[in-house]
Amino acid sequence: MTRKVNIGGVIIGGGRPVAIQSMTNTDTADVEASVAQIAALQEAGCEIVRLSAYDIKSARAFRAIKDQTSIPLVADVHFDYKIAIAAMEAGADKVRINPGNIGSEDKVRQVVAAAKMHHVPLRVGANSGSIGKAYWDRPKHEALVESALENVRMLEKEHFQDIVISLKSSSVPETIRACRRLHEICEYPQHLGVTEAGIRETSVIKSSMGIGALLVDGIGDTIRVSITGDPVEEVRVAKDILRYSGVRPFGPEVVSCPTCARTRIDIEAMARRVGEMVKTIDVPLKIAVMGCAVNGPGEARDADIGIAGGNGEGLLFIKGAPYKKVKESELFSAFQELLEKILAEWA
């Protein structure tokens, strides 16, 4: 089990729920735009937000942003130790740094002193573009681990252990191998992600494979789905990955069969309609939309509620047991009525 780390009131590690993180793509110095995007991310279900602190002005903007938000804020800092310190002084709840590119030991020591003073954890990251030259001849996943641990040791030398580690590659296999190896030898919590995963369509596949495989292994304490585009989409995909990995429930799960020659109703349309109807429900129901009354109930026995289509009619069922047979024209309304009944029982 990993160590516990407190990020602005959100506890990660130590068996706590895996937290969802995203990153703004607004100019951090533009407080109004950043606050608006953070609000949208939070509404979507984001629990930790990272912002780029690229100069002193953007670092100091954390104070104004923090005054108008209620979610932990992480400062993403590269190269300049003064920016890291300024962000902590302005209220950043965590700082993402690479001690190896901050500079001298004295500069690292000043960053650690500020982190101790302000009770701010530090996230140490390594990705395929920041591997130390000493490890270039090693397999990529080993190089990622060793590069990160080299930086961790710089912090430990200053008796600082409030650390989160992130190993990312644009390669799914490299990311998985690196994170598994780190998990074997290290107790620091891990932030997961597949970096540079591309636009939404590409990222959904790469992130689900990489992050999902690790979550199923019991690895990971925070996740970020990297998407080129609207960061709100990162949160939506992250929730799905957590849901389908069995790690955290986020509302109903709708399962549907791929259809076959026995299908006599439009299952795709029915599944989409059901999905739209339940997308704002918080109850973690499992809902099945199946193509026939022969195999439907059996195939979806573990569903809380479901529909099985027939020839001009349909069957509603609960936990795989038949509940009511109705005409096809009445199927959706009957399902809606049954769903309301089930939700009333959950209330």
TrEMBL record:
Pathway membership: Isoprenoid biosynthesis; isopentenyl diphosphate biosynthesis via DXP pathway; isopentenyl diphosphate from 1-deoxy-D-xylulose 5-phosphate: step 5/6
Entry keywords, A to Z: 4Fe-4S, Iron, Iron-sulfur, Isoprene biosynthesis, Metal-binding, Oxidoreductase
E.C. no: 1.17.7.3
Organism phylogeny: Bacteria, Bacillati, Bacillota, Clostridia, Christensenellales
GO molecular function: 4 iron, 4 sulfur cluster binding; 4-hydroxy-3-methylbut-2-en-1-yl diphosphate synthase activity (ferredoxin); 4-hydroxy-3-methylbut-2-enyl-diphosphate synthase activity (flavodoxin); iron ion binding
Function: Converts 2C-methyl-D-erythritol 2,4-cyclodiphosphate (ME-2,4cPP) into 1-hydroxy-2-methyl-2-(E)-butenyl 4-diphosphate.
Family that this chain belongs to: Belongs to the IspG family.
Gene3D superfamilies the record matches: Dihydropteroate synthase-like, Sulfite Reductase Hemoprotein, domain 1
Organism: Guopingia tenuis
Ranges for domain IspG TIM-barrel: 2-239
Reaction(s) catalysed by this chain's protein: (2E)-4-hydroxy-3-methylbut-2-enyl diphosphate + oxidized [flavodoxin] + H2O + 2 H(+) = 2-C-methyl-D-erythritol 2,4-cyclic diphosphate + reduced [flavodoxin]
The protein's required cofactors: [4Fe-4S] cluster
Cofactor note: Binds 1 [4Fe-4S] cluster.
The protein's name: 4-hydroxy-3-methylbut-2-en-1-yl diphosphate synthase (flavodoxin)
Binding site for [4Fe-4S] cluster: 257, 260, 292, 299
Pfam families: GcpE, GcpE_C
Enzyme class: oxidoreductase
GO biological process, one term: terpenoid biosynthetic process
Domain annotation IspG C-terminal: ranges: 253-340
Entry superkingdom: Bacteria
